[in-house]
Amino acid sequence: MTTAVEVSGTELGGNSVQERITRLERGFGDLDDPGNPLGAEQFVRADRERRILPAAENLLDGFGLNAEFVPRELGGRLEGLDALVQVMRSVFRRDASLGLGYGMSSYMSAVVVWAGGSAGQQRAAAELLLAGGRMACAYPQPAEGNDFLHNRFTTVPDGSGFLLSGRKEALNNAARATSLLLFAHSGREPDGSGDPRTEDACSAFLIDTPAPGTPGFRLLPRRTTTGTRGCLVHGLEFTRYRIGADRVLGAPLAGAGLAARAFPVIRSAGPSMALGCADTALRTTVAFARSHRARSRASLATPRTRTALLDAFGDLLLCDALALVATRSLHLLPRESATLGAVVKYLLPMLLTEMVYDLSIVLGSEAYARGGTYAAFQKSARDLPMIGLGPVGSAASRAAIAAHLIRLPALRPPTDGDAPDRPELFRPFGRQLPSLCPPEPAPPTDGDSLVGSLDRAVEQARGLGGGATERALAGYATALGAELERLRRDCRELVDGHRPPVPRVYALADRYALIAAGAACLGVWQHHTGPADSLLAGPDGAVMVLARLLRRLDPATPKPPPQGVERLLAELQRRFDDARSYDLYATVIGR
After folding, report:
1. CB neighbours of 101 closer than 8 A, spacing ≥ 6?
2. What sections of the sequence does the record tag as coiled-coil (predicted)?
C-alpha cells in the first residue's frame, strides 16, 4: 500500500520541474488506495462535505506550492508557464477545488502584480505568497462574460485616496485571502459630481483584506456551487471604504490595460491545468471497463467501449497539444498569445465536457455514483464545467477569436521574421524560455504563426511514404489543409461583406479553433525530439487525434487504419498499468 509522504519545498528549490512533479506525485500517493489519506475516497468525502481536504493543503504547504507562482527573480520557482501547468495538473488530478482554491486563485491575482505592480508591490506579493499567504481577485467582467460574475466596484476620489463602493457576488478564497486584487471603475459622487471624461475608466488596487466588522466592508454569505464544491466562494461588499493612493496597482485608470495583459495568461493556464481533472475521469473509466468480462457491454472487448476510450484519449492529447502551444506562446510569441489563449479557453472546456459525457455512457449508472470505487468520475464530471467560468469565460473567448478572424482573414504566417514552424513552440519541456511577463500593450501581429505553420506541416506529412498509417497521416493532414483553405475563403467573403452577421462569424470561430488545435497536433508530431518508440514519435498518435478532430469538421472523414487503433489502445492500457498520465507527458502518477 502506498500512502502520502511528506514533501519539503526547500528540497525542490533547485530541482528541475520533472523532479518537482515526481516528488509532488509521490507525496500525494496512490489515488486509488483506500488507505491513503490523500486518496480518491478522501477527496470525494471532502467534496461531499463541501470542504477542501486539510491533509492536502498541508502537503502543498510543505511542498511550497505558492513558490511556483512567484518568478525566480523574486525568490520563487516560476520560469515557464507550461512547467507551472504541469505541476498544477498533479493537484487538479486529485481535486479541482484544491487546484482552484489553493493555487489558481492566488496566481490569477499575482500575475497582474507581476505585470504592472511597482517593485515594492511585487516584493510584497512575493513575500506574502512565499510565506504561505493567499490572494483573491475581482477582475473586470467583459461585456460577453457570464452573469454569475457580472457586477462591479466603483471608486471616487477622497483627498489623497479613494472611496470604494459596490459588490462582487462570487470570489473564490475571499474569506481566506490575506490580500485582494480589485478592479474598480471610476464613479460619481452621490450629488452627481465627477469628471465625465474618466467616468467608467478602470483602476486596479491591491489591498489588505479588511477584518470582519471593519466599517464599510461586509463579507457576503458563502455561495454553493454544483462543481468544485470545496471552493470557498463568497461575495464582497464595500460602502465608501477608504483606500490609500499607494494601493493603486500601476497607473491610475490603467486597470483595463493590466487586465488585458493578464487575460492571455489565465485563459491559457486554467483549462490547461484542468486536464488533470479530465485525466482522472478517463482513468476511472478505463478501470471500470477493465473490471468487466469480455461479454459485458462495458468491456474493452466491445467496439462501443473501445471507441469511447480512444476518442477520450485522443481528445486529451489534442487539448494538451493546443495548451502546450498557447502556454509557450506567452514566452515566444507574446503578440499572438491573446488569440491562442482565447482558443484554449473556448475549446478545451467544450471538448472536455463532451468527453466526460461520452465516457459516462460506458459507466452507465456508476457515472452517478457519489461513493465507492468510481465516485471520482461523478466528481470530475461536476468539476470540469466550472473551468468555463471566470472573468474571461467561453463567450468572451469566442468573441476574441471572431475579432481575430475579421482582422486577419488570410490567416497567413507573420511577415515580421518569426519562423512559422518555430520548433520550441511545440516541444514539451523544451529549451529554457524567455522570462514570462504578460505581454506589454503592442499592435497585434500581422499574421497567425500556428495556423500559418500548417501548410509546411502538411507538406512534410505528404512526403512521408511508408505504410497505411503514414498514408493515413498524409490524407488527414491534407484534409486539414483543405479545411484551412475553405476557412480562409469564407473569412475573406465575410470581411468583404463589411458588416458580418454575428452567427456566421461565430461559426467560423468554431472551425478556426478546431483547425488551430489540429495544427498544434501536427506541430508536436513534426518537431518531436523524444524517444523514438514513444507515441509522439510515430504517426499513430497524430493519425488517431486528427481522425477524431476531422470528424468534427466533416462527418464523412475516413476511419483511421487498424494499426493506429491498436497502437493507441495498447498505449491506453500501458499507461493505465504503469500509472502514467494520458497527456503529452505520460507523467508517472503517485503510487
Report:
1. 52, 172, 173, 228, 230, 231, 232
2. none
C-alpha–C-alpha distance, residues 528 and 535, integer Å: 10
CA atoms within 13 A on the CB side of 78: 26
With cell 481575430, the residue in question is: 404
Q: Kindly state the greatest CA–CA separation across the chain.
A: 79
Q: Where are the domains of the chain?
A: 10-134, 147-257, 274-411+448-577
- For residue 497, what are the contacts with CB-CB under 8 A and spacing of at least 6? none
Contacts of 159 (CB under 8 A, 6+ apart): none
Q: In CATH, which of 1.25.40.10, 3.30.70.890, 1.10.540.10, 3.40.50.300 is domain 10-134?
A: 1.10.540.10
Cα angle 506-511-512, degrees, rounded to a multiple of 5: 90
Q: Name the amino acid, one letter, at 387.
A: I
Quick one: which of 174, 106, 132 has its CA closest to 9?
132
Q: Which of 329, 317, 325 is nearest to 275 (CA)?
A: 317
Instruction: Give the position of cell 516541444.
Output: 427
Domain 147-257: CATH class, spelled out = mainly beta
Pairing between β-strand 202-208 and β-strand 153-158 as defined by DSSP bridges: unpaired
In tens digits, the chain (591 residues) has pLDDT values of 444 444 544 333 446 899 999 999 999 999 999 999 999 999 999 999 999 999 999 999 999 999 999 999 999 999 899 999 999 999 999 999 999 999 899 999 999 999 999 999 999 999 999 999 999 999 886 554 454 445 789 999 998 899 999 999 989 999 999 999 999 998 765 555 555 555 568 999 999 999 999 999 999 999 999 999 999 999 999 999 999 999 999 999 999 999 988 989 999 999 999 999 999 999 999 999 999 876 677 788 899 999 999 999 999 999 999 999 999 999 999 889 999 999 999 999 999 999 999 999 999 999 999 999 999 999 999 999 887 666 567 888 999 999 999 988 888 888 765 555 588 999 987 767 777 766 566 667 788 999 999 999 999 999 888 889 999 999 999 999 999 999 999 999 888 876 667 788 999 999 999 999 999 999 999 998 877 778 888 899 999 999 999 999 999 999 999 999 999 999 999 999 999 999 999 999 986
Report residue 13 as a C-alpha cell. Answer: 528549490
